[in-house]
Design brief:
The complex is a heterodimer of chains A (about 475) and B (about 280). By secondary structure, chain A is α/β, with parallel strands linked by helices. Helix content of chain A is about 35%, strand content about 15%. Chain A has a 5-stranded parallel beta sheet with strand order 3-2-1-4-16, sandwiched between helices. In chain A, strands 6-14-7-8-9 form a 5-stranded parallel beta sheet. In chain A, strands 10, 11, 12 and 13 form a 4-stranded antiparallel beta sheet that branches. In chain A, helix 4 packs across helix 8, helix 5 packs across helix 8 and helix 9 runs parallel beside helix 18. The radius of gyration of chain A is 23 Å and the shape is globular. In chain A, about 55% of the residues are buried. Chain B is built from 9 helices and 15 strands. In chain B, strands 10-9-8-7-11-12-15 form a 7-stranded mixed beta sheet, sandwiched between helices. In chain B, helix 5 runs parallel beside helix 6. With about 280 residues, chain B is of the alpha/beta class. Chain B is globular and about 55 Å long. Chain B folds into 2 domains: about 90 residues, Elongation Factor Tu (Ef-tu), domain 3 (Beta Barrel); about 160 residues, Nucleotide-binding domain of ferredoxin-NADP reductase (FNR) module (Rossmann fold, 3-Layer(aba) Sandwich), CATH 3.40.50.80. Classes of the chains: A alpha/beta (about 475), B alpha/beta (about 280). The complex binds flavin-adenine dinucleotide, iron/sulfur cluster and FE2/S2 (inorganic) cluster.
């Protein structure tokens, strides 16, 4: 190996001034030359730390080596041994917290752009047209119900169907994909990609039932009468509000509603699509995670003149991905750190008019190790505002826990499941993803799905719980 | 799937569909609603289930054509399939033997009150029903209501049928003449439900209303359907749609219902322009 190359290959992006005027994807992806150039930087460590940093243990040096050699087909095959949704993960995984964080070259400030390469290889495959359908094992005659079609459900379903089990996936909404379809915006994750991945899972033989709310058309216990096992991957869909005065004024949205209207229901194309959304000139998003970044950037694309983020800690503590914070800044989102809303004020007609905030300062570290924000007394100020998007988190949807008496849950309503297997307190019932962990990441949901699929397969073959 | 087996026009602009959805019908109870969509561009429209025939796997939906989406829905014909029917959603009505129950339906609100009347009657209650409409032409389900009610009172705003006046006027005379009313259930325009709740408050009669908040998913995921009940925020789609009428903040409900009125008007005008 020659001299270390510490020039991380940049990925082309749409110009910020242009991209806020459209909803197309911001990042444009590597060309073949760029991908090979980046792949050649990998020094193929003997003990690759990157693999340990990957929640699904992709053989990272191997797929990168194949790219460097120009064997893209081989590379995607290697990738799919561990990750069935690379086009999605390459775009939305927090690589800077995972594989790229521990990449040996990170110490030199130039980790391999593993995520961009992952995305490149998945897009390359899609561009070829024909996607390889791996052969499934002979039918076992066993039936599994998968509840929820987010990343956890999709992973479980595709793994189990390839092992020869018959899989039916139930989804409450009219489109499959979970947060990938209703939450994460088009400009970050094009819906065509999610559709392609879902179609792939269907081509593998998974039966998909949309508009099917489990707990309503059938309880989990009823599913167990027909299916040999049930996997619950229903996500963390219940939006939190802060409980401050004025939160029910017209113009105050949960991020879930705002993003669902914009993405799933395509309100940005109203009246061509039927669902409306309040646009507003001045929009404030409350929160500092990916969901907040997505909301603030969506507001710009809906035509807001000013889109601001209100976050109670400082930039350092923001849980959003660095890349997304940068994108938001480039696009002109204004960040108000160490600030928290305390009330919203409206007019006679219940319309939001003003937001009242208080300044914060960082105190002693709290349980999460981050310094606790404390309000500075008397620092309240008011500012006029048209739309507020509350993006402070979600908890699990209680529908399934409420209708499944045998399921043990935490006091927050998360289903209790074994980390290694996804087994719940009820025989034959497995769970994974955000419904177990609380709002987390796509890759962790997939990782949980993969583990549960292995455990379900074993349970179906041995009958041992 | 979701085939419209029967379509009727009950009154000008009020349509009835019988829809073949065995999985929904099997679980539907009085008070439940479904969400339907017209097309893959359509919004998600909540509609209360007006009747269920479990043996045939059929539910009845009754809706008034008020905006673009409901007008478009009204264009579906017998034999067509609805692109999407989700449910049954929400909490079912509390159906028990309460004693004497007054059931009030105003306008298309007669449709969702009907399964409750039926359920309450079957549970052994004495059911006094008050149904009303603007005029005779717009009155729906009178025979059906009469069939399951011990007494039925009909009002029309213009006096073209039944007693002239509002359902609340009729309620007023029942409240003064009947000694023991154990419960009141009212479904109709927010303003009507609010008036009913105000009338029964001094009598301390438990009064249940069914709210028609704006919804998106209908499964508790978005919070579009927020209402304030007893000072607390509730999600109509999962905590309701039925609530204690004495605790509901109707003012807020009505203002939230008008949140998209300018967009709705635009959509309707565009649509009418096209057809
Ligand atoms: C706006 C936003 C941006 C995000 N950005 C990122 C990011 O950049 N990177 C990242 O890694 N993570 C991100 N996340 C988090 C990530 O999307 C989630 O952690 C992940 O999707 C969880 O997957 P899941 O399969 O557990 O659940 P979900 O994706 O939530 O899917 C659950 C599915 O189950 C369905 N369902 C629920 N109840 C029922 C029922 N009773 N019957 C039938 N179906 C039901 C739901 O409709 C949904 O489709 C983001 C989340 C949001 C909201
Ligand atoms: S740690 Fe970095 S340099 Fe080493 S193999 Fe992994 S990606 Fe390549
Ligand atoms: S309609 Fe979305 S939470 Fe009720």
């Amino acid at each position: 190996m020659g001299k270390l190359n510490l020039n991380r290959t940049a990925m082309p992006k749409q110009d910020p001034r242009e991209r806020v005027l459209n909803c197309n994807e911001v990042a444009l992806g590597y060309t073949q030359e760029q991908a090979i150039m980046e792949a050649e930087r990998c020094i193929q460590c003997k003990k690759p730390l990157c693999i340990e940093g990957c929640p699904v243990e992709i053989d990272i040096p191997a797929f990168i080596k194949l790219i460097a050699e120009g064997d893209f087909q081989g590379s995607i095959r290697k990738m799919k041994e561990k990750n069935v949704l690379p086009a999605i993960c390459g775009r939305v995984c927090p690589q800077e917290e995972q594989c790229e964080k521990v990449c040996i070259l990170e110490k030199k400030g130039a980790p391999i752009a593993i995520g961009r390469l992952e995305r490149f290889i998945a897009d390359w495959e899609a561009a070829q047209g024909a996607i390889e359908i791996p052969p499934s094992k002979p039918s076992t005659g066993r039936k599994v119900a998968v509840v929820g079609s987010g990343p956890a459900g999709l992973t479980v379903a595709s793994d189990l169907v390839q092992l020869g089990h018959k899989v039916t996936m139930f989804e409450a909404l009219h489109e499959p994909g979970g947060v990938l379809i209703y939450g994460i915006p088009e400009f970050r994750l094009p819906k065509a990609i999610v559709k392609r991945e879902v179609e792939y899972v269907q081509k593998l033989g998974v039966e998909l039932k949309l508009n099917a709310v489990i707990g309503k058309i059938a309880t989990v216990d009823e599913l167990l009468e027909e299916y040999d096992a049930v996997f619950i991957g229903t996500g963390a869909g219940l939006p939190w509000f802060m409980g401050i005065p004025g939160e029910n004024l017209n113009g105050v949205y949960s991020a879930n509603e705002y993003l669902t209207r914009a993405n799933l229901m395509k309100a940005y194309r109203f009246p061509e699509f039927d669902t409306p959304i309040i646009k507003g000139n001045r929009v404030a998003t409350i929160g500092g995670g990916n969901v907040a970044m997505d909301s603030a950037r969506t507001a710009l694309r809906l035509g807001a003149k000013e889109s601001m983020v209100i976050y109670r800690r400082s930039r350092q503590e923001m849980p959003a991905r660095e890349e997304e914070i940068e994108n938001a800044e480039e696009e002109g989102v204004v960040f108000n750190f160490l600030t928290n809303p305390v009330a919203y004020h409206g007019d006679e007609q219940n319309w939001l008019r003003e937001m009242e905030c208080i300044r914060m300062e960082l105190g002693e570290p709290d349980a999460s190790g981050r310094r606790r924000p404390v309000p500075i007394e008397g620092s309240n100020y008011r500012t006029s505002i048209d739309v507020v998007v509350v993006a402070i988190g979600n908890s699990p949807n209680p529908l399934i826990p409420q209708t499944t008496p045998g399921l043990e849950c935490s006091k927050w309503g998360n289903i209790k499941a074994d980390e290694g297997t996804g087994k719940t307190s009820q025989r034959g019932v497995f769970a994974g993803g955000d419904i177990v962990t609380g709002a987390a990441t796509v890759i962790l949901a997939m990782g949980a799905g993969r583990k549960a699929a292995n455990a379900i397969d074993e349970y179906l073959r041995t009958g041992i719980w | 799937m979701n085939k419209i087996l029967k379509k009727l026009e009950l009154a000008p602009g009020i349509k009835l569909f019988e829809v073949d959805v065995p999985e929904v019908a099997a679980k539907a109870l009085p008070g439940h609603f479904v969400i339907v969509r017209n097309s893959d561009r359509g919004e998600r429209i909540p509609l209360t289930i007006a009747d269920t025939d479990k043996s045939r796997g059929v539910i009845t939906l009754i809706f008034q054509e008020v905006g673009k989406s409901t007008l478009e829905l009204g264009l579906f014909r017998e034999g067509d399939n609805l692109p999407c029917v989700v449910g049954p959603l929400g909490k079912p009505s509390e159906i028990e033997k309460f004693g004497t129950v007054v059931c009030i339906g105003g306008g298309v609100g007669v449709a969702p009150i009907f399964p409750i009347i039926k359920g309450l009657k079957a549970a052994g209650n004495r059911v006094l029903s008050i149904i009303g409409a603007r005029n005779k032409e717009l009155l729906i389900l009178e025979n059906e209501v009469r069939m399951y009610s011990d007494e039925t009172y009909v009002t029309t705003d213009d006096g073209s049928y039944g007693t002239k006046g509002f359902v609340c006027d009729q309620l007023g005379s029942l409240l003064t003449n009947e000694t023991n009313i154990d419960r009141v259930v009212a479904i109709g325009p927010s303003i009507m439900m609010k008036a009913v709740a105000e009338m029964t408050r001094p009598y301390k009669i438990p009064t249940i209303v069914s709210l028609n908040s704006i919804m998106v998913d209908g499964t508790g995921m978005c919070g579009a359907c927020r209402v304030e009940v007893g000072g607390e925020t509730k999600f109509t789609c999962v905590d309701g749609p039925e609530f204690d009428g004495h605790l509901v903040d109707f003012e807020m409900l009505m203002k939230r219902l008008s949140m998209y009125s300018s967009q709705e008007k635009k959509a309707l005008d565009d649509y009418k322009g096209k057809i």
